[in-house]
Known about the structure:
Order of helices and strands of chain B: HEEEHEEHEEEHEHEEHEEE
Structural class of chain A: mainly alpha
Largest sheet of chain A: none
Largest interface: A-B, 54 and 72 residues
Radius of gyration of chain B: 27 Å
Distance between the termini of chain B: 79 Å
CATH class of the largest domain in chain B: Mainly Beta
Number of domains of chain B: 3
CATH architecture of the largest domain in chain B: Roll
Number of helices of chain B: 6
Shape of chain B: elongated
Strand content of chain B: 15-25%
Helix content of chain A: over 70%
CATH topology of the largest domain in chain B: Pdz3 Domain
Oligomer: heterodimer
Shape of chain A: rod-shaped
Number of strands of chain A: 1
Largest sheet of chain B: 6 strands, antiparallel
Helix content of chain B: 25-40%
Amino acid sequence: MHFDLEERRGMQEIGQRLRNLPTQIAAPPAFAEFKRRKLARQARLQRFSNRTRLALAAAVAVIAVGATVIVSQLSSSQHTVAHLPVTPITQLAIKPALAGAEAAAARSAASEQWLAALPAEPVIVRVDTRAAVTNLEDRIAWIDDALTSIRAEGGEADRAHALQSERDRLIGTLVQVRYAETLVADLP
Amino acid sequence: MHAKYWLALLIAASLSMGAVRAAEDKSTSQADIEAQLKAAQQKLEDAAHEIAELSTRLGKPLVDRLMLMGEGPSRAVIGVQLDSKGGKDGAHVRDVSPGGPAAEAGIRSGDLIVSVNGSDVKAEHASTEVAHLVRNVEPNSKVKIRVLRDGKPLEFAVTARPLENPLDMPGMPPLPGMPPEIFGPGGIGSMHGSLAGMQLATLTPELGSYFGTDKGVLVLRASHNEAFNLQDGDVILSIDGREPTSGSHATRILASYQSGEKVKLQLMRQRKKMNIEVLVPDRHHSPSEPLAFEEHVED
């Protein structure tokens, strides 16, 4: 393969012409405008990235504060959870720190609050389950009346204590039966 | 040509048969799931019964002992537990029985009872006074109770609930190996047998206008064994003259009968008032066993 002589001559001519060009040529007429726009864009990008960093930092701070507030509220609401309209049964558990009668009384009080939040009866009353509920309710009413009598007449404290324990136990049973009743009522 | 035609027909037939079989399988599995759900529902109800029965049985010795000592209500209760301290201002309500008459009327724990049926109880021993006054009211009668709540006076009409000696109270189920007679009338066990499956609803004014009455309890589903000769859509207007105000009330009344007792029911059936007299079925009543009843339609 050989170079074309004509072509090579042309290239030498071009090279000569290039060598004759001035070392510094004038900028094109729109270069100033191009430079101004480029600088403006760089400034905008810089400002945006600054704002983004600030916004991100603020968002992180807000989330952190929010999470702290929510966690603190949730932990404090565990003490007052029985005041909710219908508290899940599982949340009626009492702190293990409470023991004996105190724990039973606290459990009974929480259970009674849960029971009080329920409607008096389901819209559709299933007679056999309701019979179990009304029977327990009547027994508790009987015990309450008996406790009033014992206390009013200055009866023995251990008898009152035994009856109160029986009441607490029946309240626990009533919660279980009513929970089952509510579940059955909610099924299709 | 014929071969292609028959091949296409065969493919179409097999595809359609497959589709039909798949649909059948699907509906069968749906029916199975529904049946299983129903069975699980029944198990849940049975478990609730068992819990109630065993719990009741567990507390019986204590109640028996107290009854022997002469403690406990005599005729009717309002379902409150009063503090012995009380005070000169009134009797302090320590607890309200869940589902009891006082709870239904709106009395809360912490209220201060200041009068019963117009009699002031601002005495030294206010709780004793209240207990004495309540003990003398007629069962099912309205008791006017005036309380102070946060210093404000409120008045409630409480229906005194008849409660028998807990030895006779309904609810004791037959213990294995022991005769059922010793467990008193009705109760959870008998209800479970004679009224199993019955569903009731308290009548709203709208429902009432549809059924042609403004009071009563609607029978949504009669019991499986047709006990009490009730039918779906009946409205129970009264049971031996007692007008049930809710499904729970009707349940309480029906549970108070013993097997073999006669009960007069006033019903609204297909917008016609009628009276029927039925024998309370045995707790182990067989569905095929005919029940004795008389029927009178009122004009």
